[in-house]
Amino acid sequence: MKFRSIFPKIELKHIKAFERESGFLLPEDYKQFLLDTNGFFSTDFYAKSKFSDEIRQVTKLFGLYEQSLQKGVNATVYGEVQSKHSDLLYNYSALHLVNEHPECIICIGSSMMIDVLMSLDREHYGRIYCGHPQEGEEQLYDEERAESTSIEKELIYVGFRPFANNFTEFLNSSVSEAEYEASLL
Predict the structure, then answer these.
(1) What digits encode the pLDDT tens for the residues 95-136?
(2) In what order do the strands lie in the sheet with 115-119?
């Protein structure tokens, strides 16, 4: 897999700042990924679900933009639009402003067709979901409906299916471009 880092390297203090801001502790394997790469752009990362034969291209895994952690999420502090949209804290805050996902879900990546979500709830801590609201029976997350079933069932209902049990499993699910193209047929 070829990838290009998004942001400069970070330290554990930056991850701690994100955890304070969001109110959630990140899984250890995901923290290590952020420390090692701080997110990336890729043209050849194709992840295969551990729950089905589904394969999705993922072009971006978000990193932490130090300026957003120091000054809060404010579009005027970003030098480039791409930085803003590749920042983990920006995406966390943006999703919850519009109530598109449960509070315990963070968006950790994307491509043109999907978002990559991570659950931070107790039942499915660290589980990775891929999809898009246009793929669900409903396009809008409904907190009331989620309370009567489960967060996972609500995510599936709005187009996000389980993809891996944890971040390491997700990263290790990479398949070739040929396998991805064959899955589209």
Answers:
(1) 666 556 677 888 899 998 899 999 998 999 999 999 987 786
(2) 3-5, 40-42, 60-61, 105-110, 115-119, 128-131, 160-164
Q: Which tokens belong to 98?
A: 């519009």
| Cα–Cα nearest to 69, from 128, 10, 134, 115 | 10
Q: Compute how many other C-beta atoms are within 10 angstroms of the C-beta atom of residue 37.
A: 17
Q: What is the pTM of this model?
A: 0.85
- Tell me the Cα Rg of the chain: 16
What is residue 57's three-state secondary structure? strand
**Tens of pLDDT along 30-49?**
999 999 999 999 989 999 99
- Cβ neighbors of 165 (< 8 A, separation 6 or more) are 50, 126, 127, 128
